[in-house]
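One-letter codes give the sequence; the integers encode the fold. A sample entry reads:
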Amino acid sequence: MKYIVYQALARLWGKGKLSSWDAKTLKYINSMGVDFLWLTGIPRHSTGKSFVKGDPGSPYSISDWFDINPYLADNPDQVFDEFDKLVKRVHKYGLKLIIDYIPNHVSPDYQGKIVRHNYCDGDWTDTLKNDWSNPQTLEAMKEILSFWAAKGVDGFRCDMVELVPADQLGELIKTTKASYPDLIFIAEAYSKDNYRHYIEKVGFDYLYDKSGLYDSLVSICKHGSTARSLTWNWQWLSDMQPKMLNFLENHDEQRAASSEIFGSAASSFAALGRSLLFNEAAFMIYFGQEAGESAPESDNARTSIFNWSKPEGLSALYQYVCKGKELPEERAQIFKRYQELLGLAQLPVFKEGKTWDLCYCNQNMPGFDVDKHFAFLRYDDQSCYFVLCNFSRFPASVRLWIPEELHNITGCPTIDADAPSRDVTVIKLR
């Protein structure tokens, strides 16, 4: 089953309050086929201290795991009441709520039961590393996850899991799921050699496929690497594929529409088609991505997680969703394309159907470039769709052969297709 995750930094939407995540917003997110809303920046983090990076500071420098950032509340004295109402709204509009869980570190001014070392990892100078060798830390973490699950949170995106002991994470997940079996846990993991262990032994429901699919797509689009790597990564993942979370953006990565990655939103459509439609792996959108947000206000093509900011594309999207104002023409075209492709992803054939990579059997077919094109079928008992992702700068006309065994399953004939440059062509065959 393909799930769609929508990540957003809670303080940058609308007026930056929990109440900004209102009925209009949640109806809009639901209309895009989203299943899980991941709101970053809910648990209270440090702000206004000498060690804090930016203003108001990073949501990954937690000062109190049992509190909520007061700046998110219309009335800070009633922040938990406002959060409870948010949870109810999210569930009312058919969504589930994910928040961040950060097992590796806390703020230097953290007050609580987690035991800390007196140092940080790398340049994360607004944090201190947690001491997992002390049993008290694991017990504190159990209390933290149970606290938020009892508040109605449906899942956790778990930050930098490879920096903490896997066995203890496994115990934490198992214990928490014993009381809340429907919770989902998403791991930010980067070493492909660790993927299977974190799925089968630790118990994560989904893993970032950053070092596989994302890095391959960036390498193809930015550096001209071969599209064959997409097949290689899929083959390597094998039965782990349904446990992957695919994405083109998140708060750590540069905006896809920026010159640093794909060059523009339109230039990322082929990557979007492959990431979103290829199989039943989950897919994540980062807020504003669907309106071509490129973070021009930033010096690193990322929407800042440290400072207050007003990204232009995000503001335009908010005005469209909540105020009924039309998107600027270029953003409207990008938005329309996202609507189309996300609409396809909601069809049963794309949510749960089977996948057949056509690249291996079409290397010598007219017009098909194995280094610039990626083609596949999605099919089930009811329908069959052909998808061609063109990573080239040039339009393509291709003829693709359907192998006999696939023809016998789907009844699909040889396919002729035209593909615009750096875009994805989808054809319903039956």
In short: The chain has a mean pLDDT of 97. The first strand starts at residue 4 and ends at 9.
